[in-house]
Structures
1.
Amino acid sequence: MRALSITAAAHLAKWDGVAAHPRDAATVLVTRPAGAGIEVLLLRRRPSLQFAAGMHVFPGGTLSDGDRAAVPWIGPDARAWAARWHCEPELAGALVVAAVRETFEETGILLAGADERSVVGAVDGPEWRAARRRLEDGELTLGAFLRDRELALRADLLGAWGHWITPAFEPRRFDTRFFVAVLPEGQEHAPHGMEADSSFWIDPADALRAGESAELAMMAPTLHNLRDLVRADAATLLTSTPLISPIEPRLIVVDGQPMLTTESDAATA
């Protein structure tokens, strides 16, 4: 269980009891080897943004219309992803496209290659940055971008990780699937896009401690996924098949105070 933030409490006070429809979104925990373990990439959202201002998050965002367009594709198909996410193949495919697109837009990391044995190398420079801006502005689809460069999306470089749905009383709600990926060899992140003002690699355990102590501002889904990452086997991040069920925090009242909990909280209370 956790207490409501000041912002969440204000949203609850204004809530009319009608839940907004959640928007589908995709987020990626990008990792890289570091010593005997791994590091994960965190972005800090700009303080001027209306949603999650100043929060430390993983790359990601909502689906766009272009994410449903045809994309050159290598790896598990939409039907395989649909089985993992328990949704229709059309949505599953769009989620994978959104995950790759948003990661490239926000970090410059591109999960694509010419064939199943190759991954594109360094993707920084004026031409690549211009393409990122056009993707972010909705002027270009990922499919068109990849075809122009004779590349294909590498769906095999992603793993399914988690699924969170924003609480019913929030005015902006998201139905977010979390993926995991490993930084391709030869690439480095090149921030930051329009929404983030800083980014850095950090040990997941250090990130979790900083988030739990409020040294780094984080939302509950970020903390939850960091806990899972700390417990994970770095060698099998992409090939593990965790049981993924949607988590939608719900309101309960404890000693007269509204609190947020999940089914896993309730099972151990």
2.
Amino acid sequence: MTYKTVDNDIIVEDIKTGDRETLASSSTVYEGPRTPRYSFSPKGIDFGNRAIERGAGAELLVIDEIGQLELRQEGLTRALDLVRAERPCVLVIRRELLDAYLPLLPAEPLVFETTASNRDRLPEEIASALLRGNNAQG
């Protein structure tokens, strides 16, 4: 999972262990990839990819979020590898990047839009849809 700090840094957290690492910063310059707003830490990217690898065996892997870097084959690229291997994953993708990602995803991904009015109940809706899908397959 990722989240922003009050300083606008982006932290990546392995929710299984609770360990955290700085992924990107708008004020600190790292030697890793860059976007117009952020400089990415190679150490943070490596940490995130290792966290994804540790979660690869889980029944459901949640990755928040993949973006421009992954489209450029940088960043949390392990996430796309697992999706291509059709591991059960929930990916958070910004709306403006969805069209670029859809061709990279399995044939018929479930797509949910997060809004201010549905974000409290969205995890339950996603879980319910995933359970219906598993019951239809089983």
